[in-house]
Write a sequence for this structure.
């Protein structure tokens, strides 16, 4: 249910329906809120990373990005086996993290999208 529709339904249920209806809708509203908070926290983490790298290239941060992507791909390792292997090798060798150009090129070739541009999984 969309946020606006949910809020309208909640307003309409006050005083006209059983309180359980309102509280069920409140749980839905809190679920939407918590989902949005999770998205914002992920975006904030990405912005902090990108900001640090914009100031000065830091191989440690790039290595952390590889580790995070490995963790994300492990959730669906059947579909991302080859990408996962490539990322693990790159993580172990720690060569592609030494320069911005190398890192971006590797990321593009392996995952098909730029590491510092928007991407929705």
């Amino acid at each position: 249910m969309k946020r606006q529709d949910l809020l309208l339904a909640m307003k309409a249920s006050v005083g006209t329906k059983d309180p359980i209806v309102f509280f069920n809708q409140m749980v839905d509203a809190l679920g939407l809120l918590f989902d949005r908070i999770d998205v914002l926290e992920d975006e904030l983490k990405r912005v902090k990373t990108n900001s640090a790298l914009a100031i000065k290239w830091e191989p440690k941060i790039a290595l952390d990005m590889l580790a995070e992507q490995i963790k994300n791909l492990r959730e669906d390792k059947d579909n991302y086996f080859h990408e996962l292997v490539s990322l693990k090798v790159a993580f172990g060798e720690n060569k592609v993290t030494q320069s911005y150009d190398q890192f971006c090129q590797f990321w593009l070739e392996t995952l098909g999208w730029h590491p510092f541009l928007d991407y929705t999984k």
In short: The helical segments are 3-13, 19-55, 59-74, 81-93, 100-111. The two ends are 22 Å apart (CA to CA). The chain has two domains: 1-56, 57-121.
